[in-house]
Amino acid sequence: MPPRSTRRSGRTKAHPPAFSYRISKPDCRPTARQHHRNWRSLLKFGIFDHVERLPDVSLDRQFADRLELLAQADNGGIYGYHVAEHHHSPLSIGSSPGIYLTAIAARTERINFGPLVYVLPLYHPIRLVEEICMVDNLSGGRYQIGIGKGAPVGEEFAMWGGDPVEVHERFEETLEILMFGLTQEFVSFSGKFYEFKDLSMELKPKQTPHPPLWYPGNPATAGRLGANFINFGSIASLPATVETYKENFQTYVDEKGSASSPSTEPLYGGTKRIYVADTDEEAMKRARSAYAVYRANFRKPLPGDTWRRPTTFGPIPDTGGHPWDIDFDQALAGEQVIIGSPATVREFVERYESESDCNYLVTSVQWGDIGHEEASYSLGLFMSEVMTSD
User: Fold this and answer.
1) 118 DSSP 8-state letter
2) What's the pTM?
3) Phi/psi of residue 102, each to 5°?
4) What is the pLDDT of residue 263?
């Protein structure tokens, strides 16, 4: 008889083992604060990508160029690639992450990659389980699962006729089914939006118990999910955010106990737009014009005041409006963009590594109207003269 799910209050409750670390002596488990001192590891580097539309470049050329850029990152030691999911906006043309990332799997050999995020309320959970399993196996176990509710929260769901009031419940229910489907042979579920009975899950991920999770923005939620974490904010703002994340991750470990995991420790860090050129002056001039295009693209999917909601990232300069809609000089002051020669950018990275309490730095290398050749040159400088610095 195959294993079945258990029911509680009319709903299937799944408790799959997500991120954790092995504890050889449970009775000697360190406290959260003691454990924090041991979390530090060598800084890893990743890339976050909106895949913004370049108006003078055909779509097929733009996608081909991106695959070439990712092959360069793969050869240069970048740990991970994270792609956004947005719809109906020049900010993001990677609207079907699974398809796009499967192409990346075929062009790369080492780099880990995944959506940041899958907008879970837009997906049927069982269909998503099958997609994740396929991409994880096609990539040899390099897939990473970013999960979220969409940005602005509820707005993208509403664009397709959904009720934004349902977004939080749909997210929770979809995530529950997703994790159950990735780790169990059969799925039975009875919830508000979905109901299944004894669905045979023929596909399984290559990574056990499942591919790593990522949750951006909210450190407490990310920690409680046992997920990796990416946030925003200046170096000075990150330690407090990381502390919140670690405390909640420790709560997750205390509740789940020791379990096998695709990662020996979670990754947590900030994301920055970077542009590296031969000189500070050259980099600053090009980045300033590119940022104006990025800001225009960013504004287009923001109807009304949908983003006027509480945030969890560190402080940035007051703009009197949307906290992310800031100009180039404000972005520089808030360390949202890191611009300059290799020496200037290396100085920031060294300070980030020593002061932020993070073990991961996520960079955006092609944004606004930065073209493929410019992005490739900037990335090459970053990998050869910043990442490899002593």
Assistant:
1) E
2) 0.84
3) -65, -40
4) 55
Q: Which of 187, 173, 365 is nearest to 277 (CA)?
A: 365
Q: In the block, which residue shows the tokens 């769901």? A: 157
Cβ atoms of 229 and 236 closer than 8 Å: no
Structure tokens at 232: 């925003």
Q: What is the DSSP letter of 29?
A: P
Instruction: State both tokens at 59.
Output: 């779509």
Give the torsion sign (CA, 250, 254, 258, 260). negative
Burial readout 9-43 (b: 16 or more C-beta within 10 A, e: otherwise) = eebbebebbbbbbeeeeeeeeeeeeebbeebeeeb
What pLDDT sits at residue 257? 66
Helix H or strand E encompassing 136: helix 125-138
Helices 167-183 and 125-138: crossing angle, nearest 10°?
Answer: 50
- Please give the structure tokens belonging to residue 234: 């200046």
Q: Would you call the peptide bond into 152 cis, given omega within 30 degrees of 0 as the criterion?
A: yes
* Domains in the chain, CATH or no CATH each: 41-110+215-390 (3.20.20.30), 117-211 (no CATH)
